[in-house]
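Researcher: Structure prediction, please.
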Amino acid sequence: MIGGGSLNSFLARYFPVFMGTILLGCFSGSVLLSLAETTYWRSLESSVRGGYAGFGTLVVVLVLVLGNFMIARGRAWAVWMVAGYFLVCLVAVLPMFAYGPHQGVYVFGVLLPLLGLLLLNSRRHREMRSKLVEIRQQRESLKKAAGKVPRKRR
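Model: Predicted structure follows.
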């Protein structure tokens, strides 16, 4: 690893919190879409409802994967993408209470994005992000240093 530490110790410390964020994002999105099908889109016919759910799944997966990929690549701004994802999931689920959804699913729909935001704000996740930014900066400085060395042409 570039930072001088071992990859195993880095993964042992930060992989659970990184995967926890991803899994909470997946569950938040799936609960949001299943609740949307039974509340917002219940008056639509099933083929249209399925199309909306498929498109929603595609958007949810793309945003979540792109945000977490950028976090893993050391981009500090990407945490706002994932935090925005959790906020959108939360804000979209809250008004569904008026439709009378299943209370257990509704509680999960509110609880999972809140837990995702809590995990994003945890000390360990912030440490991981700062280390990943540091590794990216070291990687870029190594690329610049390697680019200045003249190479022999064959």
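Model: The radius of gyration is 20 Å.
Researcher: Thanks, that helps.
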